[in-house]
């Protein structure tokens, strides 16, 4: 049941602290800075040479996020939409680890991509939220999200759990390949352990509803970010468009000048996401859109005084490890999308033309 909430989506947004606690439960050790995955003991991934992350929609954004975490650790990693993966057929070897990210574990495009990867000799790992799903059955290994059932068509808590589980998995993979923990592992594990509390703080204090009211008559909504904040920008836009039916687009902040800037006007608010990845450059993108009259909502911890000073509005996130700040920024954007759709009286849990689980290609 909706347990007193008007929509499953809002209930599931609010369930994130508990979901994240379960996702990390028994899987990290803040004293040693170690990842402890029962399913993947140390050494499991020693032979891996490259990682392919295959997924669709929100799960693809989590895959892109994980590719950036792995790349930051020096591991070759690439994220693909599974529907494209099957067509492009990037070469794999037996030392390629293909991670299929799927909340439902039933998405047809992802299932098809897994089958092809397996047939080419890759090692396959399913990351899903559903025990015994089709994708799980086709893969060599599995890692469960434990986010609890998600009923709203728009994926919310499962994205947060996916990125968190992928951060743990990435640490295991990197440690195995490099034969040593990253010097930063303990900080990352501590930040992951604090994540449920940080998300709760956002849920308790967010001003997303005021932002949604302020900009409800806009022409379009744009989202920009760099590094791991790029998939968060794409996810912010996806959530916004699917439940509000308004035009929303996400871009890499670096992409702006190469075309999208032509769309920017005083009635296209821009959400700029700051996670500590070349924030200076994103700050100058923010000033560029403001020079075209667009209002900017910065999603940032208040560490960067210049961002806070120049932004028209700020959605604050608690200060944390830069590699997981995007999870927090995304929670603010989930809330903006929810409140915007609610003001427009959209059927939030069942947007038109969409299904929770896409079992045809
Ligand atoms: C967006 C959304 C979809 C799914 C996509 C993949 O809110 O829910 O984009 O993320 O259809 O679904 P799964 O993760 O079940 O493979």
TrEMBL record:
Its EC number is 2.6.1.16. The keyword Cytoplasm applies. It is found in: Cytoplasm. Keywords: Aminotransferase, Cytoplasm, Glutamine amidotransferase, Repeat, Transferase. The active site is at 356 (for fru-6p isomerization activity). Signal peptide: none annotated. Catalyzes the first step in hexosamine metabolism, converting fructose-6P into glucosamine-6P using glutamine as a nitrogen source. Homodimer. This is Glutamine--fructose-6-phosphate aminotransferase [isomerizing]. The lineage of its organism: Archaea, Methanobacteriati, Methanobacteriota, Stenosarchaea group, Halobacteria. The gene is glmS.
